[in-house]
């Protein structure tokens, strides 16, 4: 059982990840069109390490990346978006900061879904955080570079990950500026029974089983 915020926008629902989400998440980020901006194909151990790191962010800092699904859909995960804490080894101006990140499943880009999800997350966080939020993007990832600008991120410097992969670093002040930039219907913290019920509905839709409400 888990508790956490359930964010609802016009088209999306975002929830705190649970263990059963891992297989779908791995399948999503392993698609060649998605993996190309994530350092290429990764072994299962690396997928689990990233998943566990996000779980640690939720546990220690009370925020992290959300799983994303379409409202009224089949419960399939179509994205992973949010703000998390992750030491990258990029320096004091980046490492110990809340970091934004967004991933969409193949076939869902170009519809404004990442922007819609991130606006909801930032609206939820503004007023809770009193420090800047950072993000890193590959210089060749033009869609994400544009989205960062729309979300209020400004470039700070270019850097390289320990693997040698070049990235561009951005920062955004968490000062309440998201309140009027399009977050729709952010619901309050979901109760444990509600989250459990939603998890059962998702599993029901994925397996064809019978759900007890």
TrEMBL record:
UniProt keyword terms in alphabetical order: Transferase
Give the matching InterPro entries. Answer: Acyl_CoA_acyltransferase, GNAT_dom, N-acetyltransferase
Q: Kindly give the Pfam families that the UniProt entry links to this protein.
A: Acetyltransf_3
Write one Gene Ontology MF term: acyltransferase activity, transferring groups other than amino-acyl groups
What highest taxon heads this organism's lineage? Bacteria
Does the keyword field hold Transferase?
yes
Which residue ranges does the record assign to the N-acetyltransferase domain?
A: 13-172
Which PANTHER family does the annotation name? GNAT FAMILY, PUTATIVE (AFU_ORTHOLOGUE AFUA_3G00765)-RELATED-RELATED, N-ACETYLTRANSFERASE DOMAIN-CONTAINING PROTEIN
What is the protein's name according to its record? Answer: GNAT family N-acetyltransferase
